[in-house]
């Protein structure tokens, strides 16, 4: 069961984005994967489709159909927000940040990093351990 506060915040987000309940087609499908009898008998997977944008979302994270309905609506609204706002969206910023991190370094950047590592190694070689001499 989803709490009323969460349900209310979801409705507010729908109103803010201009998404109406009538514009969403909702289907329930049997989930796949581990879960035994519950998965095989109950249709807990939720499939949502926004008619105006054509965006589709499928959610089967939870065992409860009510929780999956809530999560699917959240995902759908995030995708619609990304489509509306575009580059300014937080999700888009996060994806772009990951893309930049995974991008290959330039040859010059690699050489610069290797040079700093060599300098650090040379500095460490100068640190000679002090041995006590027996008198």
Topology:
Blueprint: H1 4-17, E1 24-29, H2 37-41, E2 45-50, E3 56-59, H3 65-85, H4 90-102, H5 107-125
Antiparallel strand pairs: 1-2, 2-3
Helix pairs in contact: 1-3
Structural descriptors:
single chain; 135 residues; mainly alpha; Double Stranded RNA Binding Domain; three-stranded antiparallel sheet; 5 helices; 12% strand; elongated
Distance between the termini: 80 Å
Oligomeric form:
single chain
Major sheet: arrangement of strands: 1-2-3
Per CATH, what is the topology of the domain at 4-87?
A: Double Stranded RNA Binding Domain
Do you know the CATH architecture of the domain at 4-87? Answer: 2-Layer Sandwich
Total number of β-strand segments? 3
**CATH uppermost class of the domain at 4-87:** Alpha Beta
Mean pLDDT, as a whole number?
86
Poorly predicted runs: none
The backbone outline, from C-alpha atoms, is: elongated
Beta-strand percentage range: 5-15%
SSE arrangement, N to C: HEHEEHHH
User: Count the helices. How many?
Assistant: 5
What does the largest sheet look like?
A: 3 strands, antiparallel
Decide which structural class fits the backbone: mainly alpha
Detailed description of the structure:
This protein is mostly helical. It has a domain of 84 residues: Double Stranded RNA Binding Domain (2-Layer Sandwich), CATH 3.30.160. The protein has five helices and three strands. The protein has a three-stranded antiparallel sheet with strand order 1-2-3, with helices on one face. Strand 2 and strand 3 form a beta hairpin. Helix 1 runs parallel beside helix 3.
């Amino acid at each position: 069961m989803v709490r009323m506060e969460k349900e209310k915040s979801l409705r507010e987000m729908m109103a803010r984005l201009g998404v109406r309940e009538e514009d969403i087609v909702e289907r329930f499908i049997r989930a796949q994967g581990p879960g035994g009898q519950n998965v095989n008998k109950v249709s807990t997977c939720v499939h949502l489709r926004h008619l105006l944008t054509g965006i589709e979302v499928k959610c089967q994270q939870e065992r409860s159909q009510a929780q999956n309905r809530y999560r699917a609506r959240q995902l759908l609204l995030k995708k619609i927000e990304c489509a509306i706002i575009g580059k300014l969206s937080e999700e888009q910023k996060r994806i772009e940040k990951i893309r930049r991190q995974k991008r290959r370094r330039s040859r010059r950047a690699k050489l610069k990093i290797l040079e700093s590592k060599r300098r650090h190694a040379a500095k460490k070689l100068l640190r000679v351990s002090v041995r006590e001499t027996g008198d």
